[in-house]
Design goal:
Order of helices and strands of chain A: HHEHEHEEHHHHHHHHHHHH
Structural class of chain A: mainly alpha
Helix content of chain B: 25-40%
Number of domains of chain B: 2
Strand order of the largest sheet of chain B: 5-6-7-3-8-9
Largest interface: A-B, 22 and 28 residues
CATH topology of the largest domain in chain B: Rossmann fold
Number of helices of chain B: 10
CATH class of the largest domain in chain B: Alpha Beta
Order of helices and strands of chain B: EEEHEHEHHHEHEHEEHEEEHEH
Number of strands of chain A: 4
Strand content of chain B: 25-35%
Largest sheet of chain B: 6 strands, mixed
Oligomer: heterodimer
Largest sheet of chain A: 4 strands, mixed
Mean pLDDT of chain B: 89
Radius of gyration of chain A: 33 Å
CATH architecture of the largest domain in chain B: 3-Layer(aba) Sandwich
Low-confidence stretches of chain A: 210-216
Low-confidence stretches of chain B: none
Mean pLDDT of chain A: 83
């Protein structure tokens, strides 16, 4: 065992002295985690970058148009600009600087009137390539219209004025059937009395206004629940990116150590080790132990940074240990297989990285699997990257129990054992 | 004692070693001399247990299987290729290989110090090997083979690609090992090295041992005569005693024993202006045995 340990320490020392290798093992995965973490944080509203840039041009200049603009500006999803002309806004949309512009056309304020009004005249100019965002914007505009309408209803004085104006419209309308005039006048008189006499608190609640916080009641009682999480703490997007980053670190470890075996064979040090009074199995085990320990080191360093600096919190610590051990084992096995794919460094580097890239793509190392077509998600099951990510996510934020971790951890262990045995056997045959 | 009998090894259709036999008694420096591809390294690899012979037997210090750990522990092998870790320091390389042979603690430290001193690398022990010159790396290659103080040492082309100064340093090292009674198997394609260092030499070509003896024995058996060239200061008066044909004032002849012939020339009535005696060497022996020069 001492010989294996000595071999492993030697390889770890060589790894730490290879700055380029260290960048791929630790630097690149960390950059990956931070880059995508900040993007996801922006998308989830955690920063300014996630807001949709939209311009609004008020051509109506009524209090309702003003209220609409103010309500729209309150949206967390929109970064609203009110300082642009329509030409300027069009130009910015064309150049991709704005997602869309909204024009409040003349007549917007009067569109709320009972008898003369119609659909609120809004014009939306959008970037045709950003359909999803445009659809999202349309929903926000509809919601904002409802909020403005509700504000009008919630304002009693305004309601009294509106009811009086509507009553005068009805009385003065010579084209209206007298019977219908009586019906409307009776209704509006009753409505005016209702607005004047109903309990203020009840009226406020009924219209969604008047709460202590001043915040309007949502149109629908939709609550968002993070179903993957059992705890109610705030979610960090880095909890998604760091498991992927760990897998990238392990991929780099795998490629680095696979190449180091070829380097030793080409450079003659493997030959020299074979002259020593140790078995070939010990030499290979030393390499495997080094790769395994480097893999665990990657997990500890990257997740350590994630926990200490980026709000990553581990829900299942024993599960995380199991995930780390099984994933490092799987990639040690892969390393052994890749090390015998060729007899030169170039051959192993090319074939190894190519295979690992396919694993990373299919397994969700580059793009989360949820964005892939179903068949690709199924195909991704051949990738240890998928099971590695699932194991880490399970331990970190998916609240997997140990029994739920059994499947990914079992598959990873099997990959490790089979890969190690196959690689060792092929190496022995090549070396005979 | 090393004894190999009718050793045979082929790679595909290439017969690399074809019925090689020899014995090396303890304390002897034995040379395998031959051109590249003669089968020297394959022979060493079989002796070190890296290659399994197809036929024949190997015995090293009484053990028949050189692949066994206890046999390997007594062997020190300096491979032809520089088998070192460039990103480790010289000291780390030597210590690593020492640990591979079971050394630890004070004994390891002691042996590492000795090996680095032996290779003249003490002052550069903390430097990474990739910063060493070719000659220093070759010396470190030797130090790594000797760190565990082996009784039997295989040196496979230990001076390949080194500068004259380092080559001389390595010669002195090997002579020091000889003086300490180590058994050494030395392969080379430089006849000067075999001539200077080896007690006995086996000349190999195409996987076979063509001749095996001491250097003087090989020369006596296969080297032929010395070639003597003399230029007189004037044409000799008596040409009947000349051992060769006179051309102007020059005469060229071959002689097994050149000294008596030169003594006779001194009586022919003319002084020597220029004298050159080319004695046979291992190169001549190889040429005689194969019809080719060593470096062809």
């Amino acid at each position: 065992m001492r010989a294996i340990w000595t071999l492993a320490i030697k390889d770890l020392r060589l790894l730490t002295r290879d700055r380029f290798g260290m960048f791929w093992v630790l630097g690149f995965p960390l950059l990956f985690a931070l880059f995508f973490g900040f993007i996801y944080r922006g998308m989830s509203g955690g920063g300014d970058t996630g807001k949709m840039p939209v311009a609004i041009i008020d051509q109506d200049h009524t209090p309702d148009a003003q209220a609409f603009t103010e309500r729209l500006a309150e949206s967390k999803a929109i970064d609203l600009r009110t300082d642009l002309s329509i030409e300027q806004a069009q130009d910015l949309v064309r150049r991709g600087k704005l997602t869309a512009y909204v024009v409040i056309e003349p007549g917007f304020g009067s569109s709320w009137d009972m008898f003369t009004g119609g659909a609120a005249p809004l014009q939306v100019g959008r970037d045709p390539t950003r359909q999803a965002e445009a659809a999202y914007l349309q929903g926000i505009l509809m919601e904002t219209c409802f909020r403005v309408l509700r504000d009008r209803v919630a304002d009693r004085e305004r309601m009294h004025r509106d009811i009086r104006a509507w009553s005068e419209d009805v009385s003065g309308n010579e084209n209206m059937n007298p019977v219908q005039q009586v019906v409307f006048t009776t209704f509006l008189t009753a409505l005016d009395q209702f607005v004047g006499t109903v309990d203020a608190d009840l009226y406020g609640r009924g219209t969604g206004a008047g709460s202590d916080t001043g915040a309007a009641t949502p149109l629908a009682g939709i609550k968002e629940v993070a179903v993957a999480r059992k705890s109610q703490r705030e979610f960090s997007p880095f909890e998604i990116t760091f498991p992927s980053a760990v897998l990238w670190g392990l991929i780099a470890c795998t490629a680095t150590f696979a190449m180091s075996i070829v380097q030793e064979r080409v450079g003659g040090t493997f030959h020299r080790l074979r002259l020593a009074p140790i078995a070939r199995g010990q030499i290979v085990a030393g390499k495997g132990l080094a790769c395994f320990l480097a893999g665990l080191g990657v997990v500890v360093v990257l997740l350590g940074i994630g926990v200490l600096a980026f709000g990553v919190r581990v829900q299942n610590a024993p599960g995380l240990v199991a995930a780390a051990v099984c994933t490092a084992l799987a990639f040690t096995g892969l390393m052994m297989v890749f090390s015998v794919l060729g007899k030169t460094e170039n051959a192993v580097a090319g074939a190894g990285w190519a295979a690992l890239m396919v694993f990373a793509m299919l397994g969700g190392g580059m793009i989360p699997q949820v964005f892939m077509p179903r068949w690709m998600q199924t195909a991704g099951s051949i990738s240890p990257v998928k099971w590695g990510i699932l194991a880490f996510e399970g331990a970190i934020w998916r609240s997997f129990s140990l029994s739920e971790l059994l499947l990914p951890c079992g598959i990873l262990t099997a990959v490790g054992v089979v890969g190690y045995l196959a690689g060792t056997a092929i190496l022995a045959r090549q070396d005979a | 004692m090393i004894r190999i009998t009718n050793l045979r090894k082929s790679f595909g259709s290439l017969l690399a070693v074809d019925g090689v036999s020899f014995e090396i008694p303890p304390g002897e420096t034995f040379g395998l001399l031959g051109p590249n591809g003669a089968g020297k390294t394959t022979t060493i690899n079989m002796l070190a247990g890296l290659l399994r012979p197809e036929a024949g037997s190997i015995e090293i210090n009484g053990a028949a299987d050189p692949g066994r750990a206890e046999v390997r522990r007594g062997l020190g092998v300096a491979p032809q290729a520089l088998s070192l870790y460039g990103e480790l320091t010289g000291q780390e390389n030597v210590a690593f290989f020492g640990r591979m042979y079971g050394l630890a603690g004070e004994r390891l430290k002691e042996r590492v110090d000795w090996a680095l001193d032996f290779a003249g690398l003490t002052s550069r022990r903390k430097d990474r090997v990739r910063t060493y010159s070719g000659g220093m790396q070759r010396r470190l290659n030797l130090a790594c083979a000797l760190v565990h103080d082996p009784e039997t040492i295989f040196l496979d082309e230990p001076t390949a690609g080194v500068d004259p100064q380092s080559r001389n340093f390595i010669f002195e090292n090997i002579e020091a090992l000889k003086a300490r009674g180590r058994t050494i198997l030395y392969t080379t394609h430089y006849m000067e090295e075999a001539q200077r260092l080896c007690d006995r030499v086996a000349i190999m070509d195409h996987g076979r041992v063509l001749a095996l003896d001491t250097v003087p024995g090989l020369i006596a058996a296969h080297g032929g005569s010395s070639v003597v060239e003399v230029e007189f200061d004037r044409p000799p008066a008596d040409t009947s005693a000349l051992p060769g044909k006179l051309e102007g004032t020059r005469v060229r002849f071959e002689a097994k024993e050149p000294l008596p012939a030169l003594a006779r020339l001194g009586t022919c009535g003319a002084g020597f202006l220029h004298l050159q005696v080319q004695q046979p060497d291992l190169e001549t022996v190889f040429l005689a045995l194969t019809g080719r020069r060593l470096r062809d």
